[in-house]
Amino acid sequence: MFKHETIETHAGWLIVLTLLAIGVGGLVEIVPLYMIESTIEKVDGVRPYTPLEQRGRDLYIREGCYLCHSQMIRPFRDEMMRYGHYSLAAESQYDHPFQWGSKRTGPDLARLGGKYSNEWHVQHMTAPRSVVPESIMPNYPWLLKNKLDISDIADRMRALKMVSVPYSETKAEYDANVSKFGKDVAVMLDINRAQENLIAQAQKGNYDGNKADISEMDALIAYLQVLGTMVDFSKYDEAYFVKFR
Amino acid sequence: MSEQKNTEGSVQTTGHAWDGDIQEFNNPLPRWWIWAFYASVLFAIGYWIIYPSWPVGFTDKGYLTGVGNTITFKNDKGEDVTTHWNTRALLLEDMQTGPEAMKQKEYLAKVTKASYSQIVADDDMLGFTNAYAKGLFGDNCAACHQAGGAGVMGKYPNLADDGWLYGGSYTQIEQTIKNGRKGSMPGFEDRLSEKQKDDLSEYVLSLSGHEVDRNKAARGAKVFSGEGTCIACHGANAKGNTALGAANLTDRIWSIADVPSAADMEGKKAAIKQVINKGISRHMPAWAGRLSDDEIKLLTVYVHSTLGGGQ
């Protein structure tokens, strides 16, 4: 009879059957990735992050905000009523890594953009309990003190470009972005202009209320204020999104 | 170690022995476990057939969509759409026909048709409104205005008192919530002398009935309507201007200058001077688009009737 002893004492059997088991697991994980295109909704407005927002996103990851906050509103009635429209796959197509999840020590942040003022974010981030007395979120006072390191922004964008985020470096790539996203957005996605764009957005937005320099707070708030705001849901029939499932 | 054998005697070992006498039993998996395993396999096969599963397959969708398992919901035009089972369609169905949603809709329809005064007069509608709006307030407003609406001195106005920067009528509150507000007062740090600011602060405090130095206050009154042009926003009677959100300085309600917690007259004056020096710039986000018109209506009733008490 074919007992596990047979497998354990014959290296050939062991190799073949191990490969088979791993192969099934691998296929189940990998095959859907080739089918994923058909599940990404075709919606207007979703674009890669600007250099400043991208730096903010890097800080979000550095500080481990994702350990307590998800960015994925699930298609349940209670979640829609609390957070807004459920998240679309299209909305995180340029996120590397994505921030989906269901680990919510704090609330979901997928549609945070525009909910609060910049001043509130500064106060909440430096001392959460001064606005939400029962909060258990940590204080992040250094974000306001640390100057934002912008020296490597071009490299950061190049790295994302390697995983197919359409930041542009050549004229042809830039032109492709102009036709895909329009001129204003295409300019922001140009790696050659990354630093000047970053500085201009930080100075114009003045997110942390201090014009003198660009702090890490500026970048983080720029990122938080754009979350979930790119798609105008009033333009679409709800039935349209169902087609992608 | 004695020659103790395993008491059952019948259990096979794998045949290895370590350290002379450590052996490994070759027990079969428990029977219940095996059956549970086979049952899960059968369940999975049933699940594959009924629910969308394999991302490959010969349907027109390009994947297996589940057999005999459809959901019908209405699209935005009101037409019936039938689709294979999926969570997005399930949500729409739940929102359109679920018992909880229907009950809520029924109330909501009643409330949105009613006028503000009708809602407040009807216990049933008011009860629903307050219950619903309390949740909305907690999710969206409490982070700034605090759970009971008491606000944070200097930053987020108290909605539970009787003072309103932008007016406390239903329509004014509705406008505030819908479109947001940007309250701004310029700083006068460099434009007025220390003496003028001192006189002004005496005058401002006199408006709300504080005991002040009359001579100073009289001089301050001149600055108020002259060099300071405080009058342009706060008005000749200093009762404020709801179109600009300029505070009423004649009541004892303070939103920015922390007069109430100052221990003595000097402290109160310092609080006023701080506002005169630095000015104010604060911003209430707009909620149209994020909240529906119905939700804004419910919140308006809640802020007016339950928290604020209107005007």
Characterize the structure shown.
The complex is a heterodimer of chains A (245) and B (311). Chain A has 245 residues and is an all-alpha fold. Chain A has helices spanning 4-8, 11-35, 51-62, 77-83, 118-126, 142-145, 153-162, 171-181, 183-188, 194-205, 216-224, 238-242. In chain A, helix 3 (51-62) crosses helix 11. Chain A is globular. Chain A starts with a helix and ends with a helix. The model of chain A has no long low-confidence stretch (mean pLDDT 94). By secondary structure, chain B is mainly α. Chain B has three domains: 1-50, no CATH class; 103-180 and 286-307, Cytochrome Bc1 Complex, Chain D, domain 2; 181-284, Cytochrome Bc1 Complex, Chain D, domain 2 (Orthogonal Bundle). In chain B, 46% of the residues lie in helices and 10% in strands. Chain B is built from twelve helices and six strands. Chain B has helices at residues 31-50, 87-97, 99-113, 116-121, 123-140, 142-145, 170-179, 194-207, 214-225, 231-234, 265-278, 293-308, and strands spanning 13-18, 22-25, 70-74, 80-84, 181-185, 280-284. A two-stranded antiparallel sheet of chain B has the order 1-2. A two-stranded antiparallel sheet of chain B has the order 3-4. In chain B, helix 5 (123-140) crosses helix 12 (293-308) and helix 7 (170-179) packs across helix 12. The radius of gyration of chain B is 35 Å and the shape is elongated. The interface between A and B is large, with 35 and 40 residues.
**Percent in helix of chain A:** 40-55%
Q: Characterize the quaternary organization of these chains.
A: heterodimer
CATH topology of the largest domain in chain B: Cytochrome Bc1 Complex, Chain D, domain 2
Question: What spatial form of chain A do the alpha-carbon principal axes imply?
Answer: globular
Radius of gyration of chain A, whole Å: 22 Å
Query: Helical stretch count of chain B?
Result: 12
Query: What is the CATH-assigned architecture of the largest domain in chain B?
Result: Orthogonal Bundle
- Number of structural units classed as domains of chain B: 3
Provide the β-strand percentage band of chain B: 5-15%
Percentage of residues in DSSP E strands of chain A: under 5%
Work out the helicity level of chain B: 40-55%
Q: What kind of sheet is the major sheet of chain B?
A: 2 strands, antiparallel
Quantity of strands of chain A, as a count: 0
Strand order of the largest sheet of chain B: 1-2
Question: H/E series of chain B, N to C?
Answer: EEHEEHHHHHHEHHHHEH
Low-confidence stretches of chain A: none
Name the pair of protein chains with the most residues at their interface, and give those residue counts. A-B, 35 and 40 residues
Count of beta strands of chain B: 6
